[in-house]
Amino acid sequence: MDYIVAIVGRPNVGKSTLFNRINRKRKSLVDDLPGITRDRIYAYIQWEGKYFTIVDTGGLEVDKDLPIYDKVKEQVLCAIEEADSVIFMVDAKEGLMPQDMEIAKILRRRGKRVYLAVNKVDGPEKRILSDEFHMLGFEPLYPISASHGYGIKELMDDICKEIGFEKPVSKVTDLIKVAVLGRPNVGKSSLINKILGFERMIVSEVPGTTRDCVDIELDWIGKRYLFIDTAGIRRRTKIKERIERVSAISSLKSMERADVVIVMMDCKEGITNQDLRICSDALERGKGLIVALNKWDLIAHDRYLIDQLEMEVSRSLKPISFVPVVRISVKEGKNIDLLFNTIKRLNRQISYRVKTPFFNKILKDIVAHHSPTYSGRKVK
User: Fold this and answer.
1) Whether residues 210 and 301 fall in one domain
2) 103 vs 44, 107, 165, 302, CA distance in Å?
3) What is the pTM of this model?
4) pLDDT tens digits, residue range 91-142?
5) What total number of domains does the chain contain?
6) Domain limits for position 25
7) pLDDT one-digit tens code per residue, 230-239
8) Does 368 fall in a domain?
9) Does residue 131 lie within any of the structural domains?
10) 10 and 136 inside one domain
11) Cα–Cα dist 357/376, whole Å
């Protein structure tokens, strides 16, 4: 079993910045706006010969009573529960806050090994800023700067002392990578949760709930998959906030890692120009493409709406009529098996290697039927 280290703390103390520095990749979105990270984000890393999993979490706000904050809190508590040790991050510049005290109580109740990282200490001359955090009762303190790297080695070396030497987990080579894209609120995260059988991703009626691209490995009837859940992509003219623009770019870039792209659409809203743009982006990148028409349960008993949708599908997807269209209902679990069968079939097709003699024969037949010409004469 992997050793797991979770990074927790209140919003905007630098958790994602530390996660990215340890991971040596910009996997989590970082912004000055509080509450950017919401879902758990995992990375399997190596540090000085030790292998372990590190988990980035959303900012824990214990005193807010809104549905989205409750769901973020559930994600954080789940990360703490499954972790072997916890990096508890606080902000030296803001000082000790009441929320830090509440989080400390939660961690003490869980009985986990806690490493208290006092962030935004940019050098040894500022270590005095960390003194007041001794009140939290976790020793020793680790004054660090996640942005500049100060103090990170000392923190990580002490964590690694708790980790035994284990062989790195071998990567599954025949993994089918599937990116799930679409406009906001079409059911992308709900699809992942339905497949897993539990709420791994935060789902809300508020558009833009998912912000990071989250990788989730899973098994389905003996086959291993990597699903990439992405942020909803709206039209550029509707994007006002910088973080939404960064999320949309990250979602589109996730296609590059995928073998198959599922573009999810809402049956009730029909097919929009934005849906077609996302499909076009996937095909231009040479990816296998599946159109998944979600929320089929909302129109399943209305023959008129079904006929209207079928006409719209026929008209709008005519230029890409070769793309398979799967009608699903994530809410009822309808046609999830069919979706997986389509993924496997499409992956086989795009992975198929055409042998040279077969290709030459096809090319020869084409030339025989349509001989090239030069100056109006056939080329011999």
Assistant:
1) yes
2) 25, 6, 31, 51
3) 0.67
4) 999 999 999 999 999 999 988 899 999 999 988 878 888 889 999 989 889 9
5) 2
6) 4-160
7) 877 877 666 6
8) no
9) yes
10) yes
11) 30
